[in-house]
Design goal:
Layout: H1 2-35, E1 37-39, E2 46-48, E3 52-57, E4 61-66, H2 67-80
The chain binds zinc ion (ZN).
Length: 81
């Protein structure tokens, strides 16, 4: 009886380990693409980090701006002056 319970527990452990391993592999498969994406702080569209301008506000807050929004800000500044 104890042997049977141990066998079931062992099988369950293998199933859980396989599931966790599979999940980890799946996350690794999708993460590099997701990791490189950031939202523009103004229009909230997602862009690759290489396409965004990064500015640090204070000690911790990081803001990303896309080219379109930077140009529009630049345009707004031009109108005011
Ligand atoms: Zn933007």
């Amino acid at each position: 009886m104890i042997v049977t319970i141990l066998a079931i527990v062992f099988l369950l452990l293998i199933v859980v380990a396989a599931f966790v391993g599979y999940k980890t592999v799946m996350q690794r498969g999708t993460s590099p693409e997701e990791m490189n994406l950031e939202k523009c702080s103004i229009c909230r569209e997602k862009f690759e980090k290489s396409q965004l301008i990064l500015r640090q506000i204070g000690d911790y807050k990081l803001l990303y701006f896309c080219r379109k929004c930077v140009l529009s800000l630049y345009g707004d500044l031009g109108i005011k002056n």
